[in-house]
Amino acid sequence: MKGLYLLLDGLMLFFPIVFSFGSRVHYFEKWRSVLFASFIVAVPFLIWDFIFTENGFWGFNSDYLIGLNIGNLPIEEVLFFFIVPFACTFIYEYCKFLFRAIRFKSLDRFIYFAIPIYGMILTLLEPTGWYTLSVVVSSGIVLFLWLRKTEHRFIGIAFLISLVPFLIVNGILTGGTTSEPIVWYSELQKVTPRIWTIPMEDILYIFTLIVSTFLLTELFEKKRTT
């Protein structure tokens, strides 16, 4: 289906925009900080994406795209790096409201250990490819930054909740519901096992993308309100 990737982008954007103006969260008031944070995070991700696409580490099926590219990246892929952080930060803000009375200390400690252990498992499964290596290193850096900001007690729960829509969307992108994947990966640069049709590395990839956005958004919001 032509435009399927763009449709998925649109669906991810629809719900946070529609519910941004609710009386409980007022997410629209933080749009400026979120978009600024998303832009900063998107820059290294787009460079990463450009290099890996150029070297054939992953690529895109034109049957599901509208055909508009920026460099070697389809416009849908470029939008992905702004829409996903925007949508997941909406989840983060909603978690701050819904779970405001919960500390989540045990959950956060679990994630502190789970992320490096998961990365270690990936590197031990098979000879380490470039995708595996890059997500292990980048997630480790973001985890370190999170540990230095322990007052952000909703990051862990927001990350886990964000995994649900992410796994659904990414499952579709990687061929879970289509005859061919929209996004394909070189098997030489990743481990063979997958979660449904999703590369195992993508868990660390999304952790790096959204947690770094959470941290930057909090920083910009703190400056805005002081």
Description:
The chain is mainly α. 64% of the residues lie in helices and 6% in strands. It has 7 helices and 6 strands. The chain is globular.
Structural class: mainly alpha
Q: What gross morphology would you assign?
A: globular
Oligomer: single chain
How big is the Rg? 17 Å
Count of β-strands = 6
Low-pLDDT stretches are none
Widest sheet: strand ordering: 1-4
Helix content percent band? 55-70%
* Main beta-sheet strand count, sense and barrel state: 2 strands, antiparallel
List the defining traits of the structure above:
single chain, mainly alpha, two-stranded antiparallel sheet, 7 helices
Brief synopsis:
This protein has 226 residues and is mainly alpha-helical. 64% of the residues lie in helices and 6% in strands.
Secondary structure layout plus pairing:
Elements: H1 4-18, H2 31-54, E1 58-60, E2 69-70, E3 73-74, H3 75-98, H4 105-125, H5 130-147, H6 155-173, E4 183-185, E5 194-195, E6 198-199, H7 202-224
Antiparallel strand pairs: 1-4, 2-3, 5-6
Helix pairs in contact: 1-3, 2-3, 2-7, 3-6, 3-7, 4-5, 5-7, 6-7
